[in-house]
Design brief:
Number of strands of chain A: 5
Distance between the termini of chain C: 44 Å
Number of domains of chain A: 2
CATH superfamily of one domain in chain C: CO dehydrogenase flavoprotein, C-terminal domain
Strand content of chain C: 15-25%
Oligomer: heterotrimer
Number of strands of chain C: 11
Low-confidence stretches of chain C: none
Strand order of the largest sheet of chain C: 4-5-8-6-7
CATH topology of one domain in chain C: Enolase-like, domain 1
CATH superfamily of the largest domain in chain A: Beta-grasp domain
CATH class of the largest domain in chain A: Alpha Beta
CATH topology of the largest domain in chain A: Ubiquitin-like (UB roll)
Chains: A alpha+beta, B alpha+beta, C alpha+beta
CATH class of one domain in chain C: Alpha Beta
Largest sheet of chain A: 5 strands, mixed
Structural class of chain A: alpha+beta
Order of helices and strands of chain C: EHEHEEEHHHHHHEEHEEEEHHH
Amino acid sequence: MDTPRAQSGLPTSSLILDINGIAQTVEVHPWTTLLDLLRSELELTGTKKGCDHGQCGACTVLIDGERINSCLKLAVTLDGAEITTIEGLGTPGDMHPLQRAFVEHDAFQCGYCTPGQICSAVGLINEGHAQGRDEIRELMSGNLCRCGAYTNIADAIEEVLSAQAGTPQREAAE
Amino acid sequence: MLNQSKTVGLPVSRIDGPLKVTGQARYAAEHFGPGMLYGHVVSATIATGRIRAIHTAAAEHFPGVVKIYTHDNRPKTAYRDSRWKDAVALPGHPFRPLENDRVLFDGQPVAFVVAESPEAARDAAGLVQIEYLSEEPHTDIVAQRHESYEPPVPRMKQFMPPPPRGDAEAAFAAAAHRVSADYVLSGEHHNPMELFASTVLLGTDGALTIHDKTQGSQNSCDYICGVFSLDPGKVVVKNSFVGGAFGQALRPKHQLFFAVMASLDLNRSMKVEMTRQDMFYLTWRPSCIQTVSLAADAEGHLQAVMHHAVHATSRHEDYQENVANWSGLAYKCENVKISYEIAKLDLATPGDMRAPGAATGMTALEAAMDELAYAAGIDPLELRIRNFVHRDQNQDKAITSKALHACYREGAARFGWAERSAAPRSMREGDDLVGWGMAGGIWEAMMSKGEAKVRLSVDGSVTVSAAASDIGTGTYTILGQLAAEAFDCPVDAVSVEIGASDLPKTGVEGGSWTAATTGSAVQAAAKAVIKTLLTHAQSMENSPLKEAKVQQVEIAEGRLVLESNHQIGVSMVDILEAAGLEAIEEHAKVGPDMLTMMRYASYSHSAVFVEVKVDEELGIVRVTRVVSAIGAGRILNPKTARSQILGGIVMGIGMALHEEGMIDHRTGRIMNHNLAEYHVPAHADIRDIEVIFVEEDDDMASPIGVKGLGEIGIVGVAAAVSNAVFHATGKRIRTLPITVDKILQSEAV
Amino acid sequence: MKPFSYTRAESVRDAVAALMANPQAQLLAGGTNLIDLIKYDVAEPEAVIDINRLPLKEIVELPDGGLRIGALVSNSAVAYDPRVKQHFPLLSSAILAGASPQLRNAATTGGNLLQRTRCYYFYDPASPCNKRDPGSGCPAIGGLNRIHAILGASDACIAVHPSDMCVALAALDATVEVEGPDGAREIGFADFHRLPGDGPDRDNTLRRGEIVTGVRLEANHFAGHHTYLKLRDRLSYAFALVSVAAAVQVADGRFVEVRVALGGVAHKPWRDPLAEAEFAGAPAGEETFIRLADRLLAGAEGRGHNDFKIPLAHRAIVRALRQAVSGHPQDQTVKAIQ
């Protein structure tokens, strides 16, 4: 790949990642985080950088189905992993139930923390530890929202959680 | 036209929502172009002094580094201060990055590294070594309060205290009930979730397209054209999506300067994204110390109000906000003395943060009102009702509308305030002390000058455009609603074009004036389109609208019709086709009505009720319930409006309980410059919040009857929390935030 | 960030050899702390050795009813493991009190043990710090020390260990299993982390080249009587100001055994087994709780901003003992303190 990364003379490794269902070969430095890989190299900017230190949750993606802060994951460690970002959950014309619920409940304002909130909520539902509002609040606390949409986010997740109760959960990468 | 409300006033979901929830909305750092370079800022690690030397050799040799800028090699920029002053600049000298060897504040940008990749720029920046000659910093507002001064050049006339009324000191001394105390607010940091960023895309002809995190694309555009002497016709600044700002992005930030500087110098496209740490060295809500003295007669009627405020500013600029004047207009009182000063600290220039001034000053006033209620033995809500005032006594003007009684009544009813037992520590639940507190809020309802364009096409689609910004406020949606209402079409038939400097002139998005201003401009432009339609309709043969006046027509179901009889009219398509037009486009300008402004003042109001539970033994506070009743004129969209208020409340809870920039005053450096140690409320901190919009008709505040919602939600919240903590614990904590250490270390009264 | 080389260890032996080959090498597991530190230029390894593919991902039941938790088992996996929840609910609770679900999904058992302090000055490379840069000084003394130590500190360092999980492991008398150039050995939990003394750059007693391979828990009688009580500045996603892990065994209204470990107060999870032993046989009631708290905090020393931690810790100990004795451990979801 004729990228600045490869040209710089600094060490790189090649790896294969399955990103939103598509296997891709990428070239990374040892220190390239998954977040930087997604946002700069792959131009998948739906995943956000809010702090770059695991302190805000805006960069949350699903790695092999688990919600993870992508800013603290070195891409090079993920060879062979399946990664689902917000772009892989739905599109404006075909939204994931959580995406629809977020719109309906106005569960965001500026929208910057939103992809992380939604990916985190997908993880939360997959984990199956949240039954009610107290659990939603506690288990979504790794996603800060400075616009203060928390109550609406809880409403949106609660709606999807109760709709899915008893029915098989939609796969993250679907 | 707007009374029928098929769209306006309904809880329409955000029209930009699907883009945001699917990750398709692109923010300032999320644009790409060929040959992009990346920049990283090196920040000073002293608060005041000089740079003795900068060693860049190691960084320059780092693979991928293109150039390193310091004050020794910065390209030439404008000389005069006036060229550096943006539209909302302050009295004083605007900061010029890399101007000289002087360090004015911790975190000041002192070098700028450009490289072929963002990682290379960042990693090389870590290799830049700087030697400083450090001087003794002064960063503590409490220690510097005696060095304060009245701003020699007011930022705004209305920020200066009104002349004293009556004799506040004498009335205070003679009154039956008196309270007087100091209230201290720590410096706060906006911390919008999006990092400040600018992407400069270089066009083939030297034109620049710049994606900037800003609350005003035209302000950023004018600024860089001034600083770099650029042809404004060759620069477009875009801010289609802004990941929160809360006032921090009103003024252009140094990443914009650096991105443009390097792009011009190197003739390459550039991207510069700040770190979270960098964002603690920008615009912040100034630390402030206030003395509020209130006195009342035996029945609780205010006899004297005195409010003295001193807040921080920087060495180079005189930041000012209206902290104390609210005390002269919130309640009826004949004896008022307000004073306001600022003090220079070795910190970055503070700036507007959500409800600047009011959030700080009303917190002190409303805490003092609670203290007075207890001193006088009167219910805190009742005390406020007894001192209700219908006039702005500061300016001696009538008020356009004030539904504050309704806020009190409806908020109290929903909260259950009547069930409150007055004595502190008298309500309990298990190990928790329960506290109920309330406070009032005010914010000025402002409208500024603004323009908009509306285009009606032959296919029935409508396009609205203005250089407004949507910083999460819902601007896209309400503008779409207003146009849909005017043309009786669905909201999704309207495309809203905002967030670019080449659109019709609009001020920065701040002060809660966007809805009133741009909304009114859209309405005016829509009316102009209808007028033009009518003119064309009347030149049609046998037009049924021949005699109609513009006030008598409206659009209904695709036809221009008589308001009084929808049977009489002409289809819009027929009108356009008859006129041989593809579309009609009209442009409108609006501004505040000067005659109204001379006679009236206009404010939004709130009453906020808070329940806290405080573990008696451990002093841990939880806000368990909030009811906020808002009087803010017409609500265009109750869904997005409610979100604005929720956001204000959450930030107010942060102000009350969490937020504090911690400065080591020995070095003048902010030490908790991250989101792990600068706490903003998390999900778990926020429980039930109820928002009530009370009925308030106001056709004077703005042509569309709105007063703005961005600020009023936060005003009073911190006071209500602190009053609730007092009610729960009997402890008056006058230094925010109210953290567990303060609760444990203070005595119940 | 300083560039580093990357290698993937295929075996524990590989990892040990790589550490021995380069004193500037560091092991990478979940990365939630190391990558954070590298980005702040606090950690500057020349070589990063990825141990994520080592076979240390199992939780194994031991014949005596205990568990062996592999060093690479994620914090989430430990917290939600049915065996941990049943037999070591204190550990599960402490883990769920820490960080966020995303961080717990990534963070590992071994990594949690090796977390570094959240001291502001440690995290700021422009500040002196004896832990980061030995001999440079400790600005937290006389500076911003609201979050700092009240027990076991030294004139060189007043930082605290930030882990929640480790406080529970201290109370449970866990054993840390390590492997190094000289083979495998075990370290009692109390001896794993160290006090700062005059060498605060060392957080623990691992020797050069050693890698944590697992944590072992012995069966105990505390499953019904324990709690993890964490007090912090916001109700979730914040480090502890003070935390208490309490585990007790009560018979006939008296303590058979009482264990109290404190977090957020010292350079290591704080325990005082001698003091605990004095209370075996004491009535499991309020008066004993207070005397035990007095005893545990007898040597506590504030540095100004953190003075409040002494009364806070005292009350937290009493409260935690009340919770543990009554069999009502703190629920980490419900924010009311029980």
